[in-house]
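F.,

This is the one I mentioned.
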């Protein structure tokens, strides 16, 4: 193959492969189906998923087709350091989830969504803000996975892009609709085994067939100086640094991750996320090297669309049998995340929109109606994602944008689980102000010069300190976080001041972190709030309970709320983890 002739499958072959793959996942889903489905099981599988299934599900959810395509795009755009920046920081962010996750589960052991916990912690506005951001984020994620599937099918078959999107959407919806999260997490196990097995075969095969390492020696002239530099500042400032900020926001704000956090057995949180860290990093960096290889070989993406790099490389150089293996790998990767997005979207609508805001809490919610609403949500979300996928936006741009947007939520959410002084007003105001600052910087609504440029640079330096401090806080506590945050800001200041505003994606992300942190802290530090974290577990519980055993009214502002929900207790969280004790 010369890099332009693609392996082509007949329509019948593609249909057969899709029927085998989605038929198999449907059979797995049917075997765990229940005649009378449980609303809590539909959302979190009873909060007791074991290590093997939970680790596989977390790995499969984080390794989505979009991340594989985006890693290759990064390699093609920025050279050899591109996939490293994409895969390494993404892997480390999975690792950073678990210390915060342990605290979240300790505070809300029976929760279904983070937004539901924010309702118990603050009230309706904070809940809907987090739920709304997750609805948008999960819909974009779903859309990008459908795009990945449509691109692949259109490249290697007679079917068009739109037809490919419809095939993938129908297949994922088919096996996820009835059992929800339980179907998602169990099929993830099978999908990740197939996906990782395919990676072990495909990556070495592509490099061998293309003549590695001779291809790297002979193709170096196709690279710019920055693309050929492993320590490229261009790659770090445009890819690495924005992604560090974006994936931390994904880790804290993404419902697909929170759902697995609430589903896994509490004592298995650490090994689950450590295992997923290793699996994600190795796979995504490896596939990302396809983009680097295409760059060295001088291959132009078909139709000028960088989303085509991975399927184009595989279909150009591999024999038919291995293209089939690759097809299964990509379909498994995108399906494992797409079903997670559907489960996340249904849980948010079930628990946050209907359960808390329409029904009025766990005591009043009808589990059967919740199930109907959850399934209807999946159908509507699938239709919307198919419609939006026709726009064929850049997957890498979508991922970075959503992650940066969520950066406005990171500090207020984390602080709400540790600091008893954070108020609903502080949470809501800080997020809105941060978004108001993020959007004009990200999209260049104003000329970036003079006082405005320096303001953005200063805020960006503060944002660096916030991100470094938050990462340190989860593992080492508040004192270490303060020191590391200050040191990080001081170290980057000479390099950032006067220049970082030229990088819109990076500076916008950092501004969102900085503004939300400063505003939330300023509005909370002198507040009279003394929240009792123990009441969260009282306010957030199972929906499938008998009326006489149901949790009392969950709205903290309701006159029917329990007395403990209204009476602050200064030391009620005495058993909290070390970082939280220091914070007090």
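My design for it:
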């Amino acid at each position: 193959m010369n890099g332009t002739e693609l392996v082509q499958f007949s329509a019948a072959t593609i249909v057969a492969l899709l029927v085998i793959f989605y038929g198999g996942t449907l059979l797995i889903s049917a075997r765990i189906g229940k005649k009378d489905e449980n609303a809590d099981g539909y959302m979190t599988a009873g909060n007791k998923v074991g290590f093997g299934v939970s680790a596989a599900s977390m790995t499969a959810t984080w390794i989505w087709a979009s991340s594989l395509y985006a890693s290759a795009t990064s390699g093609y755009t920025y050279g050899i350091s591109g996939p490293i920046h994409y895969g390494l920081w993404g892997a480390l962010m999975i690792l950073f989830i678990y210390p915060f996750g342990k605290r979240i589960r300790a505070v809300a052991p029976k929760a279904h969504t983070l937004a539901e916990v924010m309702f118990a912690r603050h009230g309706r506005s904070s809940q809907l803000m987090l739920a709304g951001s997750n609805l948008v984020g999960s819909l974009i994620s779903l859309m990008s996975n459908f795009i990945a599937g449509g691109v692949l099918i259109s490249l290697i078959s007679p079917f068009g892009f739109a037809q490919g999107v419809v095939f993938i959407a129908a297949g994922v919806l088919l096996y996820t609709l009835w059992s929800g999260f339980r179907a998602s997490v169990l099929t993830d196990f099978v999908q990740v085994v197939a996906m990782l097995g395919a990676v072990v075969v495909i990556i070495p095969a592509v490099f061998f067939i293309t003549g590695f390492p001779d291809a790297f020696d002979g193709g170096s002239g196709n690279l710019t100086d920055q693309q050929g530099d492993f320590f490229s500042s261009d790659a770090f400032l445009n890819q690495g640094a924005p992604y560090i900020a974006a994936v931390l926001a994904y880790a804290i704000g993404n419902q697909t991750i929170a759902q697995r956090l609430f589903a896994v057995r509490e004592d298995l949180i650490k090994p689950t996320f450590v295992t997923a860290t290793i699996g994600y990093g190795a796979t995504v960096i490896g596939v990302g090297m396809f983009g680097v290889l295409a760059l060295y070989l001088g291959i132009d993406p078909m139709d000028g669309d960088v989303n085509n790099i991975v399927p184009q490389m595989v279909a150009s150089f591999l024999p038919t049998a291995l293209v089939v293996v690759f097809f299964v790998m990509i379909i498994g990767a995108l399906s494992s995340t797409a079903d997670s997005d559907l489960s996340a979207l249904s849980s948010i609508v079930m628990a946050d929109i209907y359960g808390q805001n329409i029904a009025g809490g766990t005591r009043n919610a009808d589990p059967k109606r919740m199930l109907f609403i959850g399934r209807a949500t999946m159908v509507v979300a699938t239709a919307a994602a198919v419609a939006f996928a026709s726009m064929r936006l850049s997957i890498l741009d979508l991922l970075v944008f959503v992650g940066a947007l969520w950066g406005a939520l990171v500090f207020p959410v984390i602080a709400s689980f540790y600091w008893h002084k954070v108020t609903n007003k502080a949470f809501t105001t800080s997020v809105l102000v941060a978004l108001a600052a993020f959007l004009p910087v990200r999209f260049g609504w104003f000329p970036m010069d003079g006082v405005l440029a320096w303001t953005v640079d200063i805020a960006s330096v503060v944002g660096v300190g916030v991100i470094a401090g938050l990462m340190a806080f989860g593992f080492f506590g508040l004192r270490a976080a303060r020191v590391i945050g200050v040191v990080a800001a001081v170290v980057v200041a000479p390099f950032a001041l006067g220049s970082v505003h030229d990088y819109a994606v990076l500076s916008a992300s950092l501004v969102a972190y900085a503004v939300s942190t400063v505003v939330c802290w300023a509005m909370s530090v002198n507040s009279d709030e003394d929240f009792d974290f123990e009441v969260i577990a009282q306010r957030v519980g199972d929906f499938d309970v008998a009326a006489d055993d149901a949790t009392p009214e969950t709205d903290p502002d309701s006159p029917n709320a329990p007395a403990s929900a209204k009476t602050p207790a200064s030391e009620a969280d005495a058993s909290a983890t070390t970082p939280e004790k220091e914070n007090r």
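Residues 550-584 have pLDDT under 50 and may be disordered.

Talk soon.
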